Amino acid sequence: MKADQYVTVAREGVHESEINRSRFICALAPAATEQEAQEFIARIRREHPTATHNCFAYVVGADASVQKASDDGESGGTAGVPMLQMLMRREIRYAVAVVTRYYGGVKLGAGGLIRAYGGVVGEALDALGTITRHRYRLATVTVDHQRAGKMQNDLRATGRAVLDVRYGTAVEIEIGLPEADVDAFRAWLADTTAGTASLELGGEAYGDA
Known about the structure:
Layout: E1 5-9, E2 13-19, E3 22-30, H1 34-47, E4 53-60, E5 66-70, H2 80-89, E6 95-102, H3 109-128, E7 130-143, H4 145-157, E8 161-167, E9 171-177, H5 182-192, E10 198-207
Antiparallel strand pairs: 1-7, 2-3, 3-6, 4-5, 4-6, 7-9, 7-10, 8-9
Helix pairs in contact: 2-3
């Protein structure tokens, strides 16, 4: 069963905290694939070559099917795992977090490290914000040229996301529909166009529709 929605990072960004003279810099980004997450981690490491540690965690998949974490030399379980736990606790998906630490000379102990790494990820999520993406069906409305302009206006007026418009012998308008709305939309379309428009359902996607 696919998740009907998921929450992810609103945008890429950085949040920094200082804890007992150590700098903890959390870089967060959306990641559609595991490869994207790994490329982001590699980029942050290049940006901080002299850092004491570059620990990371990422979650890919609406059902969190891919979860990875690394302590990058910190004591086992004190960095990557608390970072991953924070992402999971906030129900974040398709996102990657890298926490860069510059050691400041004061040891934090295992408990202190767990709080620091998990905490800075939570702070970064608060600072950068999150967005909810909903699962929807791609659907194509085919309508004649005379009705196409009004149809697009009607769709937008009823809050439908128009994703694409293709002009040929007829006009194809691609929209996103929540699964629960398909039957009601089909009835609305038949009523609005006196049965002259057709509706073809496509695959599934996630978005703001």
